[in-house]
Write a structure and sequence with these properties.
This protein is 38% helix and 13% strand. The chain is α+β, with helices and mostly antiparallel strands and 169 residues long. It has a 3-stranded antiparallel β-sheet with strand order 1-2-3. The radius of gyration is 19 Å and the shape is globular.
């Protein structure tokens, strides 16, 4: 079974960087790219989850990076639950600023998610755009399939974990 994972659907580190791949797909190519590290926000300003990487860029690497991320995320959550401060878990939100533009990045389970919000004169949303990690990673799947057997497509496709509708958000 492992033979189907190793050397199947390989994406090189150079190709990864050239295409701007994100999330576990990039980390499986040995690229330490994680929004929680590069643009720390919230709790990640004080506590960090180690970035999980592997070097081979194949199906095995993508699966292994996901496994590592699960282990590290569970440990992170357990550590944080031990030290929860007392008090409210909810805070009141303020009104949105009028005529403003905000760009926000968050690390999702597929990788970097970009939110762009614009408000009008009354501080109401006038535009809101989300860019899913799949937008960045679809070409990676195409490159992974070069010189591969067609029978490897389902395995490679699932290892990229792409969103079909997220690509055109």
């Amino acid at each position: 079974m492992r033979a189907r994972f190793e050397n199947a659907g390989t994406v090189s580190r150079t190709t990864c960087n050239d295409l701007g791949l994100v999330g576990p797909v990039a980390r499986a190519c040995g690229v330490e790219r994680d929004v929680r590290q590069e643009f720390p926000f919230g709790i990640y300003r004080f506590f960090q989850v180690p970035v999980s990487t592997f070097q081979t860029g194949d199906v095995f690497a993508r699966a292994f990076v996901r496994w590592l991320e699960i282990q590290r995320s569970v440990n992170f959550i357990r550590d944080q639950l031990k030290t929860l401060p007392p008090g409210s878990i909810r805070a009141e939100t303020k009104s949105l600023a009028a005529n403003a533009v905000v760009v926000s990045l968050v690390e999702g389970w597929r990788g970097e998610i970009c939110h762009v919000a614009m408000t009008d004169e009354q501080g109401k949303f006038s535009r809101y755009k989300i860019v899913d990690p799949s937008f960045h990673n679809w070409m990676g799947l195409a490159m992974a399939m070069r010189d591969q057997q067609i029978s490897d497509f389902p395995l490679c496709n699932k290892s990229f974990n792409l969103s079909y509708c997220g690509h055109d958000l």
